[in-house]
Specification:
Blueprint: H1 2-12, H2 17-29, E1 45-47, E2 50-52, E3 56-58, H3 69-74, E4 79-85, E5 98-101, E6 106-109, H4 117-127, E7 134-139, H5 148-159, E8 165-169, H6 184-202, E9 210-214, H7 220-232, E10 237-240, E11 261-264, H8 268-282, E12 288-291, H9 297-306, E13 310-313, H10 316-320, H11 324-338
Parallel strand pairs: 3-4, 3-13, 4-7, 7-8, 8-9, 9-10, 10-12, 12-13
Antiparallel strand pairs: 1-2, 5-6, 6-11
Helix pairs in contact: 5-6, 6-7, 7-8, 8-9, 9-11
């Protein structure tokens, strides 16, 4: 199976990037994905009440419509985040909108929340209800929405009780006005309305965890304010971070000037620094999930030592395939043992 899968991966990488992604989703739906070990005693992790067999998660963007959650869990991911999903279906931005930066091991996308909407997403979650594994729903806002905050409330109401956690994604650079929700007044209004919706849905029962996903293009004053508001309004944690609009001078690829969000290897350093600043701003009192540039166990471990309790990846799979999750977990076990820890939780924040 692994030889067949490796050959298929090489073939898919010759396609246009968006067609390659579509082919990978189809292959996974047919059961052609890798099968890997998921549980490692040294990597067992709890974040915001979620018990993870390992802290390596699949970031949103890969499985926009919640079609291949179980194949990706089977590939070794400790948790899978599907989406981003918007209330109404939308086609996203004009093509081409996805670019591989092979020389830089990076990706630029300007997809624009292309997805089939809440109803299709909900049906897919309902179809797998009762299956094992921790699953998140990443919520977005429609491009033409006049009240983007209302779109997040709509998502919570429509999907409540189906995923294990939610992510409020206000960090994509490809939906006009979305990142404006990170500004203090707009963010306070958003979190207030999310909290109100959550209270109406839960009553006296415990709430499902709700995370806030932010951009890497923030200064420390913004980081401190986002952290303060997240704690004030009871957010379960912060996901740091989404793609960047910055373009490092080190980029070599032909596509380096394409508009959109940059992810993958070039994002590792800056996103880890932002993560470290969130950890310092919160004094370690709000759970963090580290995202951006992870392509190895060493990368994942660096995020954890910077303050992340769990990590997510996506772009590195463009170059290394979904079997990467198992490889990273195996490397993390070695790194944890080499540092004399019994569990990876002991390494959280030691380098911040």
């Amino acid at each position: 199976m692994s030889v067949f899968y490796d050959l298929g991966l090489k073939a898919i990488k010759t396609f246009d990037p968006e067609k390659a992604h579509g082919a990978a989703i189809k292959a996974l739906k047919l059961g052609l994905g890798p099968k890997a070990e998921t549980s490692f005693p040294e990597l067992a992790t709890e974040i915001a009440g979620l018990k993870l067999p390992n802290p390596v998660g699949l970031a949103a963007g890969f499985d926009k419509d919640a079609e291949v959650i179980d194949p990706m869990l089977a590939a070794g991911f400790g948790f899978v985040e599907a989406g981003s999903v918007t209330p109404l279906p939308q086609d996203g931005n004009p093509k081409p909108r996805l670019f591989r930066l092979d020389e830089d091991q990076g990706v630029i996308n300007r997809m624009g929340f292309n997805n089939r909407g809440l109803e299709a997403f909900k049906q897919h979650l309902q179809a797998r209800k009762g299956n094992p594994g921790i699953v998140g729903a990443n919520l977005g806002a429609n491009k033409l929405s006049t009240d983007k905050t209302a779109d997040y409330v709509t998502g919570l109401n429509a999907l409540w009780g189906l995923p294990d956690y939610f992510t409020i994604n206000i960090s994509s650079p490809n939906t006009p006005g979305l990142r404006d929700l990170q500004a203090a007044d707009a963010l306070e209004d958003l979190l207030d309305r999310v909290q109100e919706a959550r209270m109406a849905l839960t009553g006296d029962a415990p709430s499902l965890p709700i995370f806030l996903k932010v951009a890497p293009d923030l200064d420390f004053a913004q980081i401190a304010r986002i952290t303060e508001l997240s704690r004030t309004y009871g957010m379960s944690g912060i996901i740091v971070s989404n793609t960047t609009i910055a373009r490092p001078e080190s980029l070599e690829s032909l596509y380096k000037h394409e508009p959109g969000g940059l992810s993958g290897g070039p994002l590792m350093k800056s996103s880890t620094q932002i993560l470290r600043e969130f950890y310092m701003a919160s004094e370690g009192r709000i759970p963090l999930i580290g995202v951006g540039g992870i392509a190895s166990g060493a990368d994942a471990y660096e995020k954890i030592k910077a303050g992340a309790q769990a990590v997510q990846l996506y772009s590195a799979m463009v170059f290394k395939g979904p079997q990467l999750a198992e490889t990273i977990c195996q490397d993390l076990v070695k790194l944890v043992k080499a540092d004399g820890y019994d569990n990876i939780s002991q390494a959280v924040g030691v380098a911040s």
